[in-house]
Amino acid sequence: MLWPLVSLLAILLATLAVGWIVDQVLQRVAAGRPDAPLWPLLRRCRVPLQLVLLAGLLIATRPLEHLLDLDDESVRHTLLLVLIAALGWLTVRVMAAVLGAVLSRYETVTEDASRVQRVHTQLDLLRRVLSALVWVVTAAAILLTFPAMRTIGASLLASAGIIGIVAGIAAQSALGNFFAGLQIAFGDTVRIGDTVVVDGQQGTVEEITLSYLVLRLWDYRRLVVPVSYFVSKPFENWTRRDPGLLAWVLLHLDHTAPVEELRGVLHERLAAGELWDGKEWYLQVVDTTPSTVVVRAAMTARTPDDTAALRFDVREHLIAHLRDRHPGALPRVRTAESG
Question: What distance in Å separates the CA atoms of residue 99 and residue 101, rounded to the nearest whole number?
Answer without folding.
Answer: 5
